[in-house]
Amino acid sequence: MGFSQVLGQAAVVDNLKKQLEHGKVVHAYLFLGPKGIGKTLLAKIFAQGLLCSATAHPVPTDCADASLSQVDPTTNAPFPGNQVSNGPIFPGPNAETFSPGDPASAHSVPIDSADASSELGGYAAGSATSGPAAVGSSEGSSYDGPGLTDSAAATLSPEGSSSGAASTGAAAVGGADRPCGRCSSCLRFSSGNHPDFLHIQPVKNSISIDAVRDLQRDIAVKPFHRGRKVYLIDDCHLMTVQAQNALLKTLEEPVGHAVILMTADSGSQLLPTVLSRCQQVILKPVSINLLEEYLQKKYKASPGYISFAAAYSHGIVGKAVEVVENENFQQQREEIIRLIHSILQGDSTSIIKNTEFFVENEDRVFEILDFIILWMRDIIMLKEWPQGALINVDKRNMLAKHAINFTTGCIKYIISIIEETKQLLLSNSNYRLTMEVMLLRIQEVVTCRQW
Ligand SMILES: [Zn+2]
Asked: Is the backbone of residue 227 left (phi > 0), alpha (psi -120 to 50) or beta?
């Protein structure tokens, strides 16, 4: 497992790698982004990097203190970000909004995957000398919050105390390419059996206060491997309010050896006090072209279907992979396309059969209705902007037939009927009746074609 597995999140990955490389991390991170974007994957890789014991640039033990993380180990020169020692650590246009001495303020600085420059003061993302001023990186070395340096971790390590820095004359101080994938820690992590990594996941769509208390009990136990323990709370937006309040105590009074990683689809369901105590790592959808290229290299599906998968997923890698890998999805898509074709034929005798289809697939009705809307959107694209990007690229011929038969106004009206139906379903209307009325209304539009 390594950062190369993460697709299209260069700014975020660069920033996290710098934090590992420079040996400073904060005590809590929140990975934010839509479902399937790769939050858990990235958080796990970062966790493995935090626990990795690779040492690329050993330095003499008598220099191995926290201040060394401000020095480039390859040249012994100070990092550029340290040259203005009394200046603001976030010297961009928004510098006044950050308070270096305030851990809560500093932690809330987001790492933005697509717009790091604007979020972090106008720096060019990925530059080694003027990159985003990440909390915990060399640029933020004046930050004195509850971060944990690698050198500090080394002094906490049971291994280090017995046979580590003092006896070998070297200590791990940044520079290593972590996770290395080869050290004993990485191997244990990859086997899913690392004693200093705890992965908490929701049970029945909820994370209870008991799970947080388990975490707190575990934090109190000394690390086993390298002086650091990492906790990953997946879908932390599913924590109950009680669980969040319990976790808040740990975030407010962090334990030196613990790093808490959390993932969430959005921060809206989290307490502001929890949000403000985490460094936010924001993942955004990747470009459709990049995703298409990735899928083409990895899968043998037809180019048309690959293009559809990339467009349909809106740049969310996990969703695109599922579209390509899941044969059920492909089969269900074909069923929905047959349904759409049947609806647009305007045959009144098919209404009963199509109603039954919706009844049989009630659990995914919104997914089906959204797919029909996307199909209608493609018809409008073909009619109004023939060079525009289709989502159902591989079904262009069938879309073209539908485009010939209907006006744009007609298709827009069908979309409005479907949107109204979705609203009715959300208000707990009679399901079968609602779907039947929707099909009757669309049938009327299709046969009259006066819009
Ligand atoms: Zn390693």
From this structure: left
Among 113-117, 172-176, 217-221, 399-403, name the one with the lowest average pLDDT.
Answer: 113-117
255 and 188 in contact (C-beta within 8 Å)?
A: no
Give how many domains the chain has, as a whole number: 2
Q: Can you give the pLDDT at residue 147?
A: 36
From the CA of 176, how far away is ligand 1's center (Å)? 9
53 Cα–ligand 1 center, Å = 5
Question: Is the domain of 164 the same as that of 278?
Answer: yes
* Cβ contact 310:291 at 8 Å: yes
- From ligand 1's centre to the CA of 66, what distance in Å? 21
Instruction: Find the domain containing 396 and state its range.
Output: 326-448
Q: How far is the CA of 187 from the centre of ligand 1 (A)?
A: 7
- Spacing, Cα 182 to ligand 1 middle (Å): 5
- Convert the pLDDT of each residue in 411-427 to its tens digit: 999 999 999 999 999 99
Structure tokens at 104: 């809560």
- The yes-or-no verdict on residue 126 having pLDDT over 70 is no
Within a domain: residue 158?
A: yes
Distance 188 CA to ligand 1 centre (A): 9
pLDDT for 411 equals: 95
Contact (Cβ atoms closer than 8 angstroms) between residue 200 and residue 231: yes
Question: DSSP code of 142?
Answer: T
Going from the Cα of 337 to the center of ligand 1, the distance in angstroms, rounded, reads: 49
Tokens 């993460």 label which residue? 6
Span from the CA of 82 to the centroid of ligand 1 (angstroms): 28
The verdict on ipTM greater than 0.95 is yes
